[in-house]
């Protein structure tokens, strides 16, 4: 896939420090930061649905941000020993992340999407689009211990086992598969993933790379041009080669029948009136949930999670006494995390409700530190229903902003 760098009528000139020859021209590195953000955009926090507006074309904001990123990179590079191009690009990318998406409190800005989009417009980078065709009807493998569905995925000339994960905006492969396929990669600068919303807190220390993946296929359904992540093999569950995320799944209607262990990928159809609305929140999809008669709470709807998880603040609102709760460990891309096991008296999404359902209290994960995200709906709830997922088309940064879910007992 080609990255389009388009010339602009008014070309921005990067400020330079005459006393630092290494900083005479940062523009190529800023371009590379823009390209990196374009391929990495599903991991960038985005505003909720409906907040994409004229700022996409706000050239003055884009020029201002471009200048701030340039000045940040120049200042950092001028204090370094002679460094190579890769190190310069890493510095520029970190500056872009800090300035575009994080506030003074080191938390994500609510206008992060607008700022990233304006920056990419100023740099002249456009996000390449993936394409899809066909449909699928396949049998799923069910892991009884974790209640997670595994799906056979063709990648290159291989067929590997992936997790079906609506809680991941981006498709992921492990290092072993990337090496076998001989994929060209671009390393993610150390620390750039510190704020990625995942279970576990060690994600920032992983050796992560970005790839343009070969055509991915499930039965006769294929998607080409996906920008995927590579994680170390140990970061994924045993015998799992990858994660099939929303960048693939959103190209289709996804119909999942847990009882028959059957998956259908169908051509996209219009949303229906009685469906559960799903709203985009920082690159993931959420729904409104009521617990023990209280709420609504905003929970991620995640086929890649095996259990319901609630934040500490929600547990406190529900007056859940966890002082004598049994502890356990859950596993995510960021490593293992200790949680407290609880039971919810009643959980309801729209007209669908269950009673006496297991859950865990999660205190440390970044995913529950995102603004407005208070918990996770996992497969111990979802697997009680046939699920028909519908998705909106990705926005300008390739992120799915909305969707709907029909649950049938």
Structure description:
Pfam families: gag-asp_proteas. By secondary structure, the protein is an alpha+beta fold. It has three domains: 64 residues, no CATH class; 136 residues, Acid Proteases (Cathepsin D, subunit A, domain 1, Beta Barrel); 133 residues, Cathepsin D, subunit A, domain 1 (Beta Barrel). It is 21% helix and 34% strand. Strands 3, 5, 6, 7, 8, 9, 10, 11, 12, 13 and 14 form an eleven-stranded mixed β-sheet that branches. Strand 17 and strand 18 form a beta hairpin. The longest helix has 20 residues. It is globular, with a radius of gyration of 22 Å. The N terminus is likely disordered.
Question: What's the topology here?
Answer:
Blueprint: E1 4-5, H1 27-40, H2 59-78, H3 85-101, H4 112-123, E2 125-126, E3 131-133, E4 136-139, E5 141-143, E6 148-155, E7 158-164, E8 172-174, H5 175-181, E9 185-187, E10 209-212, E11 216-218, E12 221-224, E13 227-231, E14 242-244, H6 246-249, E15 253-257, E16 262-266, E17 276-281, E18 284-291, E19 294-301, E20 308-311, H7 312-317, E21 327-332, E22 335-349, E23 352-362, E24 375-377, H8 379-382, E25 386-391, E26 402-408
Parallel strand pairs: 7-14, 8-13, 19-24, 20-23
Antiparallel strand pairs: 1-2, 3-12, 4-16, 5-6, 6-7, 6-11, 8-14, 9-10, 10-13, 11-12, 15-16, 15-25, 17-18, 17-26, 18-19, 18-22, 20-24, 21-22, 22-23, 25-26
């Amino acid at each position: 896939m080609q990255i389009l760098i388009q010339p602009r009528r008014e070309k921005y000139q990067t400020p330079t420090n005459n006393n630092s020859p290494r900083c005479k021209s940062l523009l190529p590195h800023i371009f590379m930061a823009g390209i990196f953000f374009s391929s990495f955009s599903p991991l960038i926090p985005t505003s909720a649905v409906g907040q994409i507006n004229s700022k996409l074309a706000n050239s003055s904001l884009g020029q201002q941000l471009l200048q701030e990123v340039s000045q940040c990179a120049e200042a950092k590079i001028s204090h370094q020993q002679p460094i190579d191009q890769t190190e310069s690009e890493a510095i520029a990318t970190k500056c872009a992340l800090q300035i575009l998406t994080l506030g003074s409190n080191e938390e994500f800005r609510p206008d992060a999407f607008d700022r990233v989009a304006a920056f990419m417009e100023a740099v002249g980078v456009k996000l390449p689009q993936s394409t899809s065709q066909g449909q699928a009807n396949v049998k799923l493998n069910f892991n009884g211990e974790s209640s997670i569905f595994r799906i056979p995925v063709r990648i290159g000339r291989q067929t590997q086992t992936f997790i079906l994960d609506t809680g991941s905006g981006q498709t992921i492969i492990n290092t072993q598969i990337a090496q076998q396929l001989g994929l060209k990669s671009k390393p993610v600068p150390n620390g750039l993933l510190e704020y990625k919303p995942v279970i576990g807190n060690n994600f920032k220390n992983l050796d992560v790379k970005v790839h343009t993946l070969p055509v991915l296929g499930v039965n006769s359904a294929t998607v080409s041009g996906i920008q995927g992540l590579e994680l170390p093999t140990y970061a994924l569950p045993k015998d799992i080669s990858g994660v099939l995320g929303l960048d693939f799944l959103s190209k289709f209607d996804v119909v999942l029948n847990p009882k028959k262990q059957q998956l259908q990928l169908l051509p996209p159809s219009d949303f229906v009136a009685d469906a559960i609305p799903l709203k985009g929140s920082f690159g993931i999809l959420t729904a409104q949930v009521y617990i023990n008669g209280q709420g609504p709470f905003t929970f991620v709807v995640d086929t890649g999670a095996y259990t319901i998880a609630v934040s500490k603040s929600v547990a406190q609102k529900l007056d859940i006494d966890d002082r004598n709760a049994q502890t356990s460990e859950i596993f995510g891309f960021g490593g293992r995390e200790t949680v407290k096991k609880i039971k919810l008296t009643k959980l309801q999404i729209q007209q669908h409700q269950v009673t006496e359902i297991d859950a865990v209290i999660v205190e440390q994960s970044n995913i529950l530190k995102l603004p407005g995200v208070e918990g996770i709906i996992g497969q111990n709830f979802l697997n009680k229903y046939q699920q028909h997922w519908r998705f909106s088309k990705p926005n300008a940064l390739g992120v799915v902003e909305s969707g709907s879910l029909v649950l049938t007992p």
